[in-house]
Design brief:
Length: 107
C-alpha cells in the first residue's frame, strides 16, 4: 500500500510550486503550505519538492509545522509561502533560525 504522502501530486500544483521557487524564493529550505483538493486539508511541501512531506486537516496546523521546519533547518531560516485554493500565494512569512542551545556568542 502506498502511503498518502507518497501519492503523486497534481501536476498543476507542482508547476506552480516550481515557478514560485524559481521566481521568488529559490531556497530549498523554504516550505509551501498548499491545499490538497484530492484529500482535503493542507500539505507542507519542501521548496524543491513535488510531494507533500506532511499533511494536516487545517491550514493553521500546516502553517505551524512549516514554520517549525524552517526555523530548525540548520541553514539560517527561510520562508513559509501559504497558497490559497486558487494556487496563488496569499501570504509569505520570513522565519529566523532558532537560536542554538549554546546561545549567540558573537554578539
Amino acid at each position: 500500500m502506498v502511503a498518502d504522502k507518497d501519492k503523486p501530486r497534481d501536476p498543476k500544483w507542482t508547476k506552480k510550486v516550481y515557478k514560485v521557487r524559481n521566481a521568488k524564493s529559490g531556497k530549498f529550505e523554504d516550505r509551501h503550505v498548499i491545499p490538497n483538493r484530492a484529500r482535503g486539508g493542507w500539505d507542507v511541501v519542501k521548496g524543491d519538492g513535488t510531494r507533500a512531506s506532511e499533511h494536516y486537516a487545517t491550514e493553521a496546523e500546516a502553517v505551524e509545522r512549516a514554520r517549525e521546519i524552517v526555523a530548525n533547518n540548520g541553514s539560517g531560516g527561510g520562508t513559509v509561502l501559504i497558497h490559497g485554493h486558487d494556487g496563488k500565494i496569499r501570504r509569505s512569512d520570513s522565519i529566523a533560525p532558532t537560536e542554538s542551545p549554546d546561545g549567540d556568542n558573537k554578539h
